[in-house]
TrEMBL record:
Stored InterPro entries: DctP_fam, TRAP_DctP_sf
GO biological process, one term: transmembrane transport
Protein name, UniProt field: ABC transporter substrate-binding protein
Pfam families hit by this protein: DctP
Top-level taxonomy: Bacteria, Pseudomonadati, Pseudomonadota, Alphaproteobacteria, Rhodospirillales
Signal peptide start and end residues: 1-21
NCBIfam families cross-referenced by the UniProt entry: TRAP_S1
Cited PANTHER family: PTHR33376, SIALIC ACID-BINDING PERIPLASMIC PROTEIN SIAP
Length: 344
């Protein structure tokens, strides 16, 4: 066979190599860099090493949302636009664009990690359907930042002391709950909270102990009330156009790897909560955070009862009206899934 024919065969063979043999390029927008150890120790390394973690021939450009300059409330819009292929969705922040997301984590619903896992597993398929329909994106998994507790600059002894105070909240469900206590809920990006507490723009703020520790909130507060209002459910979603370009094998590998990451974060979030509460209140061992000396307020049975009643009396009715306005079957699907778990 002549060299010319061999060259032609080689050129033809090269021209018919399937597109899947090319390296897949993914742009990933992550959690804020300052939001804590879940982002820095789990999420960032996972995506930066996605090829090794999945076996997919992929190159990833990972950017924390606060580095991009994009508001974290725009996560779903960013997915729809295709500006990023995968987004680490901040659930409370994007719930105004898609209210069904908030149905995963109404105030009073997920007061423990076990309850949160059961409730999110029950409702996430509905949320996925809504995100696919409205934002051209597929939900790959959901996970908790951790129990959302109350940090205050003035000393408080319980929920009653919040009356008349300004409280930073992460979503509408928390805002409604805080309003019911006679306080004012103030929506505010996470990165602005520490300074706002220092300057008295807000008196108190709600987040997880690990995030508060990482962002230095104990430097601007005196008291923490470890009463879990929510779990701050976040998630990972991929643009459907990007998803459809992937081979079935690569799709399966990505789903499996993200599922494993999500499982890891659920366990890590619980570990972080315990350690961060010790760190924030000056108790040893403090292994993963910075030690502070906040006063930990004992949780009253009466306050636990107020939060427990919030789902049926405040969180669900207000949220259902908002969600049904966007999707008429939203409340019915919630009651058939999470509501069934709760006996509602």
């Amino acid at each position: 066979m002549s060299k010319h024919i061999l060259m032609v065969i080689g050129l033809v063979a090269a021209s018919v190599v399937p597109a899947s043999a090319e390296t897949l390029s993914l742009k990933v927008m992550g959690q804020p860099a300052g939001s804590g150890l879940i982002a820095n120790n789990k999420e960032k390394p996972f995506f930066e090493n996605l090829a090794a973690n999945t076996g997919i021939d992929v190159a990833v450009a990972y950017s924390p949302v606060d580095v991009t300059g994009i508001p974290d409330s725009d996560g779903l819009r960013v997915l729809k636009s295709g500006l990023f292929d995968i987004v680490s969705i901040r659930g409370p922040q994007v719930s105004r664009d898609e209210p069904s997301v908030l149905g995963l984590d109404l105030v009073g619903l997920n007061t423990t990690f076990a309850a949160g896992r059961k409730n999110t597993d029950a409702f996430k398929n509905y949320v996925d359907g809504r995100i696919q329909e409205q934002f051209n994106a597929k939900l790959l998994g959901v996970w908790p930042a951790g129990p959302q507790v109350i940090f205050c600059k003035p000393e408080i002894t319980g929920l009653d002391d919040l009356k008349g105070l300004k409280v930073r909240v992460g979503d509408q469900s928390a805002a409604n709950f805080i309003a019911g206590l006679g306080a004012t809920g103030v929506p505010m990006p996470f990165g602005e909270v520490q300074q706002s507490l220092s300057r008295g723009v807000v008196d108190c703020a709600i987040t997880g102990p690990a995030s508060a520790n990482a962002a230095g909130w104990p430097e601007a507060t005196t008291t923490v009330l470890p009463l879990a209002l929510q779990l701050a459910i976040n998630g990972y979603a991929i643009n459907l156009d990007t998803w459809k370009k992937m081979t079935a094998d690569d799709q399966s590998k990505l789903e499996g790897a993200v599922a494993a990451l999500v499982d890891e974060i659920w366990a890590y979030s619980e570990e972080l909560y315990d350690d961060s509460m010790r760190c924030n209140t000056g108790v040893e061992p403090c292994e993963q955070g910075k030690p502070y000396s906040l006063k930990e307020v004992p949780v009253l049975d009466s306050d636990i009862a107020v939060v427990a009643k919030a789902v049926g009396e405040k969180s669900l009715p207000v949220w259902a009206e908002q969600c049904n306005a966007m999707s008429p079957n939203c409340e019915a699907e919630w009651r058939a899934t999470i509501g069934k778990n709760l006996g509602l």
